[in-house]
Each structure stands twice: as structure tokens, then as C-alpha cells.
Amino acid sequence: MTSAAQPPSSAEGQGRSRSKTLQLLGILSGFTAGAWLGAAEAPTKLVSIGISPMAISLIMVIGVFLALWSLPALILGTSSVRADVRRAPHLMIWAVLAGCLWAVANTLTILAIRDIGLSIAFPLWNSNSLLGIFWGFLFFNELRQAGWRRWTGVLGGALVMCAGATLLAIASSTQGPAGHSLRGVWAALGAGVLWGTMYIPYRKAYLTGMNPLSFVTFFTFGEVGMMSALAVDYTGLTPLWQELLGACGVIFWLMLGGFIWVIGDLFQQYAAKYVGISRGIPLSNSNQLWGLLWGIFVFGELHGRPSCTYLQVVGGSLLMMLGVAAVAFSSASGEEQARWKEAAAPKPAATALLETTLKAAWTAAGLRMSRCIPVASGTGFSSLPPAVSLLFLPGWLASREWACMRAPLRCWL
Amino acid sequence: MATMDNPKANSSRLDRVLTDVHFWVPVAVLLAGLLLLSFMH
Predict the structure, then answer these.
(1) Global pTM?
(2) Containing domain of residue A172, as a range?
(3) ipTM higher than the 0.90 cut
(4) Is the Cβ pair B10, A190 closer than 8 Å?
(5) Chain A (84-143) residues lying within 8 Å, Cβ to Cβ, of chain B
(6) In chain A, how many domains are there?
């Protein structure tokens, strides 16, 4: 009797231990993402030397594109990406959509930095964590059956972070150029909404089984496509080319910013995967602290300000760290994790109602996308153009040389 | 490979995506962001 009961409890214990390890990994990924993402925003400060926001955003996105098509290939090779595409080609839509959201948000942040400065813009767009908590709760069953302690930890932590962010914004509120501050605030808040919503496709893809590295690989198509369209539309092809030529001296730094962002984003993806978006976003939003350090020590944004401003900055930063700690210690319970799994199949009532409405509207409009399918399937990914396939070449070469080194990474990933 | 070559499977998957609220909420936010950007510009 005893021996019969032992195996399940042992398996249960192992499962719990694995779950704890993954939660810890997710929290550490969130912190690490914060450091890298904070550093990635620093090159956008170059907007203050006269390069247009569109050109900066486009160059950063090209840097992101190059990094994303090389990093995943270096780490995993290309076989896992191709396997994901074959298994669930529709999941790429989520990645492309997220890329489009990122490109628009990034352009808005550059406008915000130009108008109100890095140290004010950062806290404003980091309000995306509150939106992330809302979407996580509404769509993905996060924080369901979590108990009041975890609710207090996550929501309270995010609110404390917002309070700290506000204090930081007040501390540097006179820094932005007069006349454009309201426009900058709208741009920063808009970026926060876009980035908060960007996590819906992230989470959706992971719940349905997509590998984060495959996700970010296709994310770049949406990103580059949207950013190129925006840059050409707003600037014009010839003026854009002239601006890119004019930015030759700083192209390396901007592309490096994109490259650094990729590393931060990969950590962020794992945070979203292992601890959910309601916890992952606040944790990776600790990037504001890093952005603040860059703003103060590298760009001298608060130079010559009175000591009370520095007190506000220190107080705001401490509040942010307190909020981050509160979120980090509110790990998901077993019951909550079971609800995450449910989110991939049956929908909560509100979501189901919205979906029913959408389906009815779709049918009523007589728009059956199935008519377009033969065209879409005819251009399947198995027939990728040779030029695109060449992008996999560095990864393929590296995978041959680094096969031994990749094995432990593969285990971890 | 079979899933890639099966139009019926692809059709149902695309239908599922296009009737999914998880898809339309980000699309709506994206359109709003583009509007905001054109206003800023």
C-alpha cells in the first residue's frame, strides 16, 4: 500500500520542484531582461543630435533583424525553427503581429525621448505592466485562484513601481523642451499601450506550444516590414536614403542598440513563458532603473539640478525596486498554473462572448478567408526564397562547429 | 510537412486565428498606435 502510493507522490514532488525551478528561471530572466533592455534604449538618445526618429527606429530594427536571424540560429541551429513552422504555421501570425506592434511602439518612444527626455519617457511607457496584468488576467487565466497575497504582491508591486515611476517623472519634469511635452507624454503612453498589448501574441504563441526562439525569428518580419513601411510613408524613399547616409557615423551604435535589445527580449520571452505576462512584464520593466542610470550618468540628464531632485530620483528608484521585489516573490501557485494550461483550450466567459461576437460578425460580413487559402498555401514556407535561406547560413555553419557547446544550451532551453 | 500541404488544415487554423479575440485586440491596438503616430508626425 505504501509502496504503491510512493511513485505518484514522488512524481508530484518532482513536478513541483521542476515548476519551482522554472519559476525561478523566469524571475531571473525577467531581471536580466531589464538590464539588457535598459541598455538598448540608450542609443535612441541620438535623436537629440538631429537624426530623424524614423531613421533611428529603422536602423535599430535592421540591427534587431540581423541579430534575431543570427542569434537563434547560433543557439539552436535552424532545425527547431523549421520544425515549429511545419508543426504550427499559423503561430507565425502571432509573431508577425507582435513585431508590427513593437515597431510602432519603438517609433513612439523615440518621439517621446525627443520631446520629454529619457528619464520621463521611461516611466510613462513602463505603465505597460498594468495593462499586461489586465490582459494576463482577462485572456490567460493568470492570477486566477492566486490568493490575496499573490494578488497584493503582483498588483501592489506594479502600482508601487508606477508610483516610483511617477516620482521619477516629477523629478525631471522640467527637462523636456517646452511646447512638446504633451505630445511626448502621449507618445510615451501610446508606446506603453502597444507594448503592454504586444504580450498577448507572446503568451498566445507560448501557450500553444511555440518555441520562443522561433517566435522571435518571425517577429522580425513584422518588425522590419512595418518599420520600413512607416519610414518610407512618412519620409519618402529618397529623403530616407539621404537620412540613412547622414547617420553613417552612428549606424553602428544604433544597430548595437537593436542587437542588445534582442538579447534582452530573449530573456523577456522566457520570463513571459515561465512566469506569465502579469509577472514577466513588471520584472523586465526594471529596465527603467537601468535607463535612469544611463540617463543620469552617461547623458547627464539631471546635471545641475537641486539636491531635492536627486532625493526624488533615489526615492522613486527605491520604490521601483520594492515593487519589483514584491512581484518577484509572488510566484504562481500550482492551482494558478493549472489555470494557465486551461487558458490554451476553454476560454473564460468574457473571452468566449467576444469570440462569439467576432465569429457572428465575420460570418455576417460573408468574409470567408478560406477562399484565400489556396493562394497562401501555394507559397508555403518550404519554398522560402534562396536569398532568405542564405540568412540561415551563419547558423548552419556555426551549428556544425559548435555542436558540443550547443548541447547544454539545448537542455536549458 | 503534411500540415503545410493540407489546405483544409490551414483553412481551419486561419479561421481559428481570425475569429480569435486574442488576435483582434492587438490588431485594434496596432491601428490605434498607427493613428497616434500619424497624428504625432
Answers:
(1) 0.69
(2) 44-344
(3) no
(4) no
(5) 85-90, 93-94, 97-98, 100-101, 104-105, 107-108, 111, 135, 139
(6) 1
